[in-house]
Amino acid sequence: MHHESPRVAAVVATQLPEPPPEPVEGQLALRLLVVDNEAGVLHATRQLLEGWGVEVRGATGPDEALALAEGFAPQAWLLDYHLDDGATGAELHRRLAARFPAGFGLVLSADHGEAVRAAVLAAGAQPLTKPLRPLRLRSLLQRRFSAG
Questions:
Q1: Which of 26, 61, 111, 148 is the most exposed place for a label (fewest CB within 10 A)?
Q2: What secondary structure letter does DSSP report for 101?
Q3: pLDDT for res 16
Q4: What's the predicted TM-score (pTM) here?
Q5: In this structure, are residues 35 and 63 in contact, taking their beta carbons and an 8 Å threshold?
């Protein structure tokens, strides 16, 4: 039987230069606020975005979102259209955009009807449909926030 000498393995390991740390391809360095009244959806969306390098804050409703936004100054927000107590993502987008005019608003809805789409567009936000397609979201964010 052939056994590799531990000394040989140690020499090989010490002779290889340590590769410099590389930035993760496609990391998105931005502050994004996520608002969804379903805690499970909110958690999953945060995890997805954080995996892309996004600094995320999450809220379950408009009041919490507006309070969080004050200290966080989001560059973008991803809002569910149907929130609790009759509130909508379109209306919340208007309020956030009034406070952070350079912000990029995306409003997500399982309702694929024209009325919801029209309301989102009228508010000045980008409509997205559920289920959320991560590649579509990532593409929109990269186009909006890519350096250069």
A1: 148
A2: T
A3: 46
A4: 0.80
A5: no
